[in-house]
Request: fold
Amino acid sequence: MQTDLPSKRCLDCSYIIDGLPENRCPECGRVFDPDDRRSYRRGARQPRWVLWIGPPRLWSLVAAVVLMTLVLKARSQHACDDVMVMVGAWLIGLVAAADYLMRLLRVRCPRHGPPGGQTGSRGRWRWLVPPLCALLIPSAMLSYWPLRVRFALSRPTFDTVVQGIQDGSHSNLGRQTVGLYSIDFIQQDRGRIILSTGCNIVGPVGMVYAPNDSPLPDTIAIRLAPCWYAAQWH
Ligand SMILES: [Zn+2]
Reply:
C-alpha cells in the first residue's frame, strides 16, 4: 500500500479509486489504468462548489408532478379547479426547474460524497422526472389530448346518461359524477344536452351532446366524438 501518496481519484468525478476490484470507477463508470498516470489523478478532492450537488431533491420532483397533474387536469376539462392553487404550483414549478438546471450544469463536475452521504447511482431516476413533466406540460397546453383522453375514457358513461335523459330513466340533473368528470348540473337547450363541468376565467365550460351533430352557437367548441363537443361559453 502506498500510504505516503495522496489517493488516486477518478478524473471525472473525483471518487477515490484506490484498491478497487476492477479498474472502473464505481461512481461514474469511467475506466482507468492503475499503471497509466494519465488515466487518474492524485490529490485532494475538488472544492465543494464544483462537486456534483446530487440529483434533484424530492420536493422539486413533487412540485413538478403536482404542476403536471394540475395542468393535465385543467386541460382535460377546459378549466382549473382553483386559480390560486394553479398560480402557486407554477411558481414552485419554476423554482424547481431553475434548481434542476443549476444541478444539471454542475453534473459536469460530478460530486464526491455530498453532504447527506448519497452515493453511487442512487437517485439517478430523479433526473428523468422533471424532463418528463416538462414535455407533458407544453404538449397538454398546446393540444387537447388530455381532454380527448379523459373524455374517451368517460364516453360510455356520458352516452348512458344522455340516453337515460332522452328516455326519461335518468332524472338526476344535479351534481353528479359522469365517467371521470364531476358534473355541476345537466340542462337541455334547444335539443342539446349540456353537462356543466364548471367555469374558467372566460366563462362556463362543459360537455355538450348535440343529436344532429351541428356546431354550437355562442361557444368555442371542440368536437370530441360524433355528436359530442367540449364547449366554452363566452
Ligand atoms: Zn468516476
Q: What stands out?
A: Residues 109-119 have pLDDT under 50 and may be disordered. Helices lie at 58-75, 83-106, 129-142, 145-167. The pocket of zinc ion is lined by residues 10, 12-13, 15, 25, 27-28, 30 (CB under 6 Å).
